[in-house]
Amino acid sequence: QTAPGATCANVSSTQTYDYIIIGSGAGGIPMADRLSEAGHSVLLVEKGPPSTGRWGGLMKPKWLAGTSLTRFDVPGLCNQIWADPVGVSCTDVDQMAGCVLGGGTAVNAGLWWKPHYADWDTNFPAGWQSKDLAAATDRVFSRIPGTTTPSMDGKRYLSQGFDMLGGSLGAAGWKYIIPNDHPNEKNRTYGPSTFMYSGGERGGPLATYLVSASQRKTFTLWTNTVAKRVVRQGGHATGVELECNGAGYAGVVSVTPGTGRVILAAGAFGSAKLLFRSGIGPTDQLNNVKNSTDGPTMIGSDSWINLPVGYNLNDHVGTDIEISHPDVVFYDYYGAWTKPITNDTETYLANRTGPLAQAAPNIGPMFWEIITGADGIQRHLHWQSRVEGLTPTSMTVTQYLGTGSVSRGRMIITKQLNTVVSVPPYLRNEHDKAAVIQGLVNLQESLKTVANLTWITPKANVTAAQFVASIPATPSRRCSNHWIGTAKIGTDDGRTGGSAVVDLNTKVYGTDNIFVVDASIFPGMITGNPSAAIVIVSEHAAEKILALPPPTAA
Ligand SMILES: Cc1cc2nc3c(=O)[nH]c(=O)nc-3n(C[C@H](O)[C@H](O)[C@H](O)COP(=O)(O)OP(=O)(O)OC[C@H]3O[C@@H](n4cnc5c(N)ncnc54)[C@H](O)[C@@H]3O)c2cc1C
Questions:
Q1: Mean pLDDT of the residues in the chain
Q2: Cβ–Cβ contacts within 10 Å for residue 63, how many?
Q3: Binding residues for FAD, per the UniProt record (predicted)?
Q4: Whose CA is nearest to atom 2 of ligand 1?
Q5: ∠ at Cα 493 (22, 236), nearest 5°?
Q6: So what's the pLDDT on residue 551?
Q7: Is 93 in the pocket of ligand 1 (CB under 6 A)?
Q8: Domain check: are 24 and 73 in the same one?
Q9: 144 CA to middle of ligand 1, Å?
């Protein structure tokens, strides 16, 4: 199909697909598997290159030369995204996001949580409550159970930090749990981190759902291929326009006439951007697209669909504290790229054991608390510890404010077609702020009798309230990379003053065959790191989409 001299292959004008899914992250991959399993032809379009070795990825440090592994496979190299994001992170987003096969699930730290029932019941509409999501949760966790001991010998390496902090919380009355065995116990509990890793490697959707999808003749994957916009006539999508990125495919790829569907799974920023470029969103943002290089090809303003895309943006509010204790032992995971410890690379390569089978930078313990605000709302705090900081015996612990948080922000698109967080979603509500402060006070209280423990941040003479107030509520200081909410699911149709962009079947209001299935549709924040919940949402959405009658408009 490649035209001579062209850098992109032109798409075939005759080949059509029942489903075109854009984006191969936590939302897109499971959806591709479920729809192809049901017998439909499915095209999965991913703008980034292959990541893990199984899919032809090539990026790796010297010590992986000659193996099929890449930086994405080895848990101990997951932090490389911060040291060397070039060619991996999205360049059109002002936040960190993975633009490779697997999206966030290729670059993240693999933390993998079975949601608390309130994650669904607090935020989601009817049909998406915890009881409705139970079957999808079971399906996800039977395929990707996760592990608290990623090293293949079942041992935890360098657990001194975990032992010190976990032991201290235990002594202060917090209860030890294996988190995913007790997903609803999130109040003054602690436990080891759970990862989606399997076999000492990354695992997750790339190693499960994508493998079964790719074994079907009806499934097609195009990497290095950028979707520009959904091509539509009124509310009906006829295909997707691809723009040449120097590789992959270009042109308009069509859905099966009449019955085909397009599913956006390009992430909280990527899907919103595609909606804007397809003439779906608030008028101010569509005018930015109109005034960009897209102008000449953009759908006419008489066909624009005015929906609150980009509003309702949320992320965990991250608040970092740092403590040090003489027991804590640091491991230089960044150093494992250029100057690894030979014994550790050897044991990893021989049998997937040792520190490199664990996520950088030695994550754990995790602990949880629920704070009831003066407004009556229960807010969930998820604390995530890691062994790094200003001293060799430091632990940095991030407090995430999740379920129950009320603050919201906004993302927009510039005339250069980049997405920007224009209103940060952090601590815009006094009770959100009070919960963050109270959680910190409670932790200080719990750790106050621990011998030899030093508070580095905040220092002893700074109150929790002063400390929280001193950290700017900006993405650079509070971001957790858990962006959600830009195309909210709900019954209150955003075209008529409501807040929802997609209906209960994840279909975009005002369209008959355009769907969004990824972090964008979450109405509110959940307790922990979101990738498992997004996979669950995708499983559930697949069921709903498959049960729909064919589109009516043409
Ligand atoms: C550094 C980092 C660490 C994280 N750690 C964790 C963790 O340990 N545990 C956890 O649960 N969560 C973690 N997260 C968050 C989690 O990975 C994301 O919430 C999740 O992957 C989002 O899923 P998604 O399907 O919405 O989007 P993504 O997974 O981001 O997938 C979107 C995909 O769409 C592609 N795309 C975008 N635009 C286009 C286009 N126009 N055309 C074609 N393709 C396109 C992108 O390249 C990407 O592959 C982390 C995130 C980051 C960035």
A1: 97
A2: 21
A3: 100
A4: 108
A5: 45
A6: 72
A7: no
A8: yes
A9: 17
Q: Report which ligand 1 atom has the smallest distance to the Cα of 23.
A: 34
The tens digit of pLDDT for each residue in 507-535 reads 999 999 999 999 999 999 999 999 999 99
96 domain residue, yes or no: yes
Q: Which residues contact 142 (CB under 8 A, 6 or more apart)?
A: none
Instruction: Give counts: helices (H), strands (E), the chain.
Output: 15, 19
Residue of the CA atom closest to atom 27 of ligand 1: 267
What are the residues facing 45 on neighbouring strands?
22, 222
| pLDDT above 70 (res 6) | no
Which residue of the set 236, 380, 382, 482 is catalytic? Answer: 482
Does residue 413 form part of some domain? Answer: no
CATH number (domain holding residue 290): 3.50.50.60
- CA of 105 from ligand 1 middle (Å) equals 6
Quick one: pLDDT at residue 552?
61
- Over the stretch 157-174, which tens digit does the pLDDT of each residue have? 999 999 999 999 999 999
186 is a domain residue: yes
Look at phi and psi of residue 267 and say left if phi exceeds 0, alpha if psi is from -120 to 50, else beta: left
108 CB near ligand 1 (under 6 Å): yes
Residue 504 has phi, psi (to 5 degrees) of: -70, -10
- Cβ distance 260 to 244 under 8 Å? no
- Residue of 108, 231, 527, 538 best suited for mutating to test ligand 1, as the one with most atoms within 8 Å of CB: 108
For residues 220 and 274, membership in a common domain is answered with yes
Domain around 73: 13-111+204-313+484-546
482 catalytic, yes or no? Answer: yes
For the ranges 3-12, 115-124, 521-530, the lowest mean pLDDT is seen at: 3-12
Whichever domain contains 393, its CATH number is: 3.30.410.10
Q: Is 100 annotated as a binding residue?
A: yes
Residue 115 in contact with ligand 1 by CB distance below 6 A: no
Pair of tokens at residue 38? 């049901």
Say if ligand 1 is within 6 A of residue 27 CB. yes
209 and 180 in one domain?
no
State pLDDT tens for residues 251-306: 999 999 999 999 999 999 999 999 999 999 999 999 999 999 999 999 999 999 99
CA 390 to CA 23: how far, in whole Å? 38
Phi-psi region of 306 (alpha: psi -120 to 50; beta: other; left: phi over 0): beta
Mean pLDDT for the stretch of residues 192-211: 98
Ligand 1 centroid vs 48 CA: distance in angstroms?
11
18 and 98 co-located in one domain: yes
Residue length, the chain?
554
Percent of the chain residues past pLDDT 70, beyond the cut: 98
Centre of ligand 1 from the C-alpha of residue 97, in Å: 6
26 lines ligand 1 (CB under 6 A): yes
- Rounded to two decimals, the pTM is 0.98
Q: What is the pLDDT of residue 245?
A: 87
CA 441 to ligand 1 center in whole angstroms: 33
Q: Write down the pLDDT at residue 3.
A: 44
